[in-house]
Write a structure and sequence with these properties.
This protein has three helices and eight strands. By secondary structure, the chain is α+β, with helices and mostly antiparallel strands. The chain has an eight-stranded mixed beta barrel with strand order 1-4-3-2-6-7-8-5. A hairpin with a 3-residue loop joins strand 2 and strand 3. The radius of gyration is 15 Å and the shape is globular. The relative contact order is 0.19. The mean pLDDT is 93.
Length: 160
């Protein structure tokens, strides 16, 4: 098994514009304008479409990801503002997810590709020592890194 390849930490915030200002002042970080990301298949636990405002720091890795709290599931404000997850690339995401789930780790939510494979998934922190981990399919790394570095998604965004 490969060691985790951490590339970001996600912070859940009530107001992403205020958070950009706060973390800019505190740490000198700069952020691109928030992007409205449309998820065609978010399962947390029921599958549905979901829109989420997100931005990443231009400094990194590891990058600071800001996620604007919304809804009742994995991105709910009910989780409280603050550290939401530690994000890692996973070169064998479906294989490794099965191994984690078989070992007793529970899922807190997942983003599915159109074909039903996993684009990203979150562990339930109750089963991972109080920490929520996000595993992201490494095959999307090039496109995601371009977005993180430029703030601009490719034509049509990501099909997830």
């Amino acid at each position: 098994m490969e060691s985790p390849n951490v590339y970001h930490y996600g912070i859940l915030v009530r107001d992403i514009d205020n958070a950009i200002t706060l973390y800019g002042k505190l740490f000198g970080l700069t952020f691109h304008e928030p992007t409205e990301v449309h998820l065609n298949r978010l399962a947390d636990p029921d599958e549905h479409e979901f829109d989420l405002r997100v931005t990443y720091s231009q400094q990194g890795p590891p990058y600071m990801e800001l996620l604007e709290a919304k809804g009742d599931g994995v991105y709910s404000a009910g989780h409280g503002e603050g550290l939401h997850h530690i994000g890692m690339w996973d070169p064998k995401i479906d294989e490794n997810k099965k191994r984690y789930l078989d070992s007793g780790v529970e899922s807190d939510g997942e983003v599915l590709n159109p074909d039903g494979t996993t684009f990203a998934w979150y562990t339930n922190p109750k089963t991972t020592g109080g920490v929520r981990f996000e595993f992201v399919d490494e095959s999307a790394r090039e496109d995601l890194e371009k977005w993180i570095q430029t703030g601009i998604m490719g034509p049509g965004g990501f099909v997830v």
